[in-house]
């Protein structure tokens, strides 16, 4: 009986902490800031940077002759068409929050969302 | 300090160091970067329950210093000490309330170890963004805390009739 009460308290403690952490996590996901730029990186080299505030349709050429069609619409970036066989990048939903990314491994193309410039200050130095 | 106690503490410190070594050999970081099993906490909890609070503090601090010097660096020592102090502090408080079993105490210890390290990282690196990683570490800390708590409970039970 006494032992059961302690086990119950353990359970309450564990569940409370997990619910709290999950709540904070969810909140931080929801509060993610809207990004300002879509940065295109091909084979590790930054090739282009597009503002998310202007709608556009861009054909991204990759080094192996392939391509990805990048659509920027309503502050979000989406890949709607690609030459790659797996189409993972096409299946991914549109991204618009800072830090989100669309990756196309076959074409070695990554589209990352970045916030306004001042976010890149290095605090360590 | 009695000779018996000196020998006992030496033994437990050695055991805690071996646990840290085993943990370094089997990294869990492939799943979630930065997570640890907290095997050494089995020893710390054992000392806390079977020997005493002061001794647990002693074993914990000495373990952190020795392990940092042997397997990592002085920078890592700052993180580990912050984690160890906070972890042991909360475990001592929860044990004192006598409202939780070893598992509950272990869960709290596992979580606070992560919290301490994140606080230290925020102070040393000056970037609050690291704190966003905390919810993930708290959830994994709870999971490892349950496992470590069950094991610790088994060990303590085996020593039920043995006075140390």
Describe the structure using short key phrases.
heterodimer, A: 125 residues, alpha+beta, mini-chromosome maintenance (MCM) complex, domain 2, 2 domains, four-stranded antiparallel β-sheet, three-stranded antiparallel β-sheet, 2 helices, 26% helix, B: 164 residues, mainly alpha, Arp2/3 complex 21 kDa subunit ARPC3, 0% strand, globular
Describe the structure.
The complex is a heterodimer of chains A (125) and B (164). With 125 residues, chain A is of the alpha+beta class. Chain A has two domains: 1-31; 37-116, mini-chromosome maintenance (MCM) complex, domain 2, CATH 2.60.320.10. Chain A has two helices and seven strands, in the order H-E-E-E-E-E-H-E-E. Chain A has a four-stranded antiparallel β-sheet, with no helix packed on it. Chain A has a three-stranded antiparallel β-sheet with strand order 3-4-5. The longest helix of chain A has 29 residues, at 2-30. Chain B is an all-alpha fold. Chain B has a single domain (3-158), classed as Arp2/3 complex 21 kDa subunit ARPC3, CATH 1.10.1760. Chain B is globular and about 50 Å long. The two termini of chain B are 14 Å apart. The mean pLDDT of chain B is 88. The chains are: A alpha+beta (125), B mainly alpha (164). The interface between A and B is medium-sized, with 17 and 21 residues.
Give the helix/strand layout:
The complex is a heterodimer of chains A (125) and B (164).
Chain A: H1 2-30, E1 37-42, E2 45-51, E3 56-61, E4 67-73, E5 76-82, H2 88-91, E6 101-104, E7 109-114
Antiparallel strand pairs in A: 1-2, 1-7, 3-4, 4-5, 6-7
Chain B: H1 3-25, H2 40-50, H3 53-71, H4 74-97, H5 102-125, H6 134-158
Helix pairs in contact in B: 1-2, 1-3, 2-3, 2-4, 2-6, 3-4, 4-5, 5-6
